[in-house]
């Protein structure tokens, strides 16, 4: 199992397989911010379960909650870290409707650059989990190693229990599954800015 996604690795005899099938599947799922769960039992077979995030849009969030019934910001600056352009734009638009100022980065490495260069205070980070170059967990780890205790909220299409435990150990403020409703997101952002450590 440890090598099943490795390109050109195959257990089939020569000429019977390229070893690229699962590697291609893994690449496609990863590009869509998805996750593959494997359940294999000797003599019984193997089950591959693919998890893909739901479509994320401002319209989807507004269907689940009215803007005038949600907690509003007071002009605080929030850094959005998300590699998917449509998701990033939806988050930026939503936070601006909630009266927050926004900054954007496409991955963890770019987020660190924004944090280093930005002059005025950034109140919070809202980050995706799976991103190229530097993931959400890698971003949080880097910040905590620098003794940066900025509040961080993680948004993810699918979180494993191991991931949640890692987030707790890194003192991540909260997390939500994608796509959150407007009410869920607004409430978590408001609580994050007014309390020290919470969970979703």
Task: Describe the protein.
With 200 residues, the protein is an alpha/beta fold. It has two domains: 1-52, no CATH class; 58-194, Rossmann fold, CATH 3.40.50.2300. It is built from seven helices and seven strands. The protein has a five-stranded parallel beta sheet with strand order 4-3-5-6-7. The longest helix has 13 residues, at 85-97. It is globular and about 60 Å long. The two termini are 33 Å apart.
Write the layout of secondary structure elements.
Elements: H1 21-31, E1 35-41, E2 45-51, H2 58-63, E3 77-81, H3 85-97, E4 101-105, H4 108-117, E5 124-128, H5 136-145, E6 152-156, H6 161-169, E7 174-177, H7 182-194
Parallel strand pairs: 3-4, 3-5, 5-6, 6-7
Antiparallel strand pairs: 1-2
Helix pairs in contact: 4-5
Give a brief description.
This protein is of the alpha/beta class. It has helices spanning 21-31, 58-63, 85-97, 108-117, 136-145, 161-169, 182-194; strands spanning 35-41, 45-51, 77-81, 101-105, 124-128, 152-156, 174-177.
Query: Largest sheet, described in full?
Result: 5 strands, parallel
Name of the CATH superfamily of the largest domain: Response regulator
**Helix fraction bin:** 25-40%
**What is the β-strand count?**
7
Q: Distance between termini?
A: 33 Å
For the biggest β-sheet, the strand order reads 4-3-5-6-7
Overall mean pLDDT stands at: 80
- Please state the structural category: alpha/beta
Question: How many domain units?
Answer: 2
What keywords describe this structure?
two-stranded antiparallel sheet, Rossmann fold, about 200 residues, about 35% helix, five-stranded parallel beta sheet, 7 helices, 7 strands, alpha/beta, 2 domains
